[in-house]
Predict the 3D structure of the following.
Amino acid sequence: MCLFCKIVAGEIPSTKVYEDDTILAFRDIAPMAPTHILVIPKVHIPSVDGITAENSAVVAHIFETIPLIAAQEHLVSGYRVVSNCGQDAGQTVPHLHFHILGGKELTTQMA
Ligand code: AMP
Ligand code: ZN
């Protein structure tokens, strides 16, 4: 089982900020901004490359929920959503996740 599947299963603890039947959001263990949250599907999808017509409903649901999480976290001045896919992007956990970064003015350097 991958690290984030273990978090979904409750085998590894996390600081949850949102959960429903199909997705989970929790605080990043090594935050890169004052607010740094990871949003994941409960089903194992390896990365953005693994999104298909069959599983994309949960991705849509993640993006419908991100504004709710941002509001809950009082990210009134804005925030950034990032997903690292594969080696060149430095993906370290092979389970699809979207970073929500905010709580400060973020660097304009994207890559
Ligand atoms: P990425 O490098 O895009 O694959 O993002 C993986 C993220 O998972 C990193 O920002 C890590 O800090 C974070 N991370 C790794 N292990 C944990 C954990 N047990 N709980 C919360 N976040 C974690
Ligand atoms: Zn997984």
